[in-house]
Amino acid sequence: MIGVVVARLHQVAIPRSSAAGRLILSRSWIRPYDRNVAFITRPELKGTFGMVSSTHWIATQCGMAVLEQGGNAFDAAVAAGFVLQVVEPHLNGLGGEVPILLWDVSRGRVEVICGQGPAPKAANIELIHSLGLEEIPGTGLLAACVPGAFGGWMALLRDHGTWRLGDVIRFAIDCADTGYPLGPRIADTVAMVEGLFREHWPASAEVYLRDGRPKSGSRFRNPDLGATYTRLVREGESANGGRESQIDSALSAFYSGFIAEAVERHCRKELMDSSGTAHRGLLEGADLAEFKARHEAPVTIDFEGWTVAKCGPWSQGPVFLQQLLLLEGLGLHAAGFLSADHIHRVTECAKLAFADRDAWYADPDFAVVPMDDLLARGYAAARRGLVDGRASLDLRPGAPGGRNPRLPRLSGQAVAEGHWTGTGAQAVGEVRGDTVHVAAVDRHGNMVACTPSGGWLQSSPVIAGLGFCLGTRAQMLNLDPDHPNRLEGGKRPRTTLSPSLALRDGEPRLAFGTPGGDQQDQWSLEFFLAHAVFGHDLQAAIDAPMFHTAHFPSSFAPHEAHPGSLHIEPRIDGEVLGELRRRGHEVVEADPWSLGRLCAVGRDAETGMLSAAANPRGAQGYAAGR
Predict the structure, then answer these.
(1) Strands across the sheet with 547-548, in order?
(2) What radius of gyration do the chain's Cα atoms show?
(3) Quick one: average pLDDT of 520-542?
(4) What does the alpha-carbon distance between residue 473 and residue 556 come to, in Å, rounded to a whole number?
(5) Pairing of strands 610-614, 622-625
(6) 608 within domain boundaries
């Protein structure tokens, strides 16, 4: 009886959006399966000053320190982002990429910063085939794109922040130089690739094995990375002029100076990759010199009083919006939270939306992506009719505007022993968690969500003397000459990285995101639905049992698919799991607290109250604020 009382008290305390900022809930609104979130791991944070949420407590605290010292949300996000490169090197790095969604109160609109670098100009399908390869390897130098993360972070700092580069990056320099407690997953990842490092990637061994195999909890330093950051600051400060000029000078040092020169030298080496053969990289200094992170308009839809903004089809972001449109007419709220109907409908809509992703999404600078048709409500209504009471085992892309869809031809090229492509979590036998996230909001109303990734320590060799690796995002480009997302020089790969920003009544309300590869826009969707449709607060929405499907081909080499699969945290009622199996889902029971690493911040525009929450899974993410 006590558990029932707690569950009901928890639900009655949940705020819902309205003109007054709350909704009085009746007993009839409480759903029987809401007992799944009767317990929350920590409170939803509330305050009026500022909030930061990230996938690592050190990054969160550094971001909060920036707010306390007078910086804005964008300054805080940049500081936290560089710290994440140091303390989660198996999940992101200086050689990776970052998409950013933001609301700058001085501009009054949602903006995207694209920090996704393109493939090398020399890259083409014929060249890869001439090397005897059927796909781009998932590790090594052939999969490297221009490292866009530094450009993305600098665009955020220069155009929206207030601090100097040296002030925001000093936290990362301190972590790299003086050390940080090595997380268990980093230690496990290094152990998995120790043989590869010692035999084929000596620069990686120099950084990660210099004192032997590192142990979980040990104090780990990366002085080469600290020196790289320090030199970027020094080169920036050598410029005459103010804050913006110093940032531009640091960008020149990275993309046209000592970093670009080192990258070109590095890519001239033949180094082992997941094909089992050593290959040189294709990146040249000229590729880096041409890159600039750029501002773009977001892709948006309206859903039940919310406006949800995502990055364009060079990301997988619009698949979140397609899922919302498909769910719009399926009576999700009436189904009950985490009921069999809820989980079944969300899963089946995900299969349809991700099939469209795989058929249509690509860099719109190179391909015609029918975004307006894909996000048309008439198209969603027609597709919604494919959802019935059984789990589909087919991959069914649609025909927006009457166009014929094309799924890419994938070879399923084998991955050589000792290589782990795509993600750090895959290397240690877990569900994918290849990325990090940071979200921040300040008392002025600025809000930002950032999802950095790439440059994973296990996927590409360290650049000697610099302390970081290049990314491997080009593995998401295919070699099908007739597909929109085919490999072309200078083209952005269709990435999985997907931050989110949601508004109500034209004002920013939520900034959120999660690591997870193809699962990012499944886990983050479930969080959003738990909050926006079912009324749970941010922490309860994150803590609620998560699920996802691996029905469609993975974006990571070797692009495996598991049709009909439904991975789910077994904190769901056993009767629900049984009903899902009866409907034809291949239910895979994950560990009880294993799916998703969500971070979220919020703001109520009427009261000015800020909120934040972070994922307890993995015992590393944290939110802070006041």
Answers:
(1) 547-548, 565-568, 586-589
(2) 23
(3) 97
(4) 9
(5) unpaired
(6) no
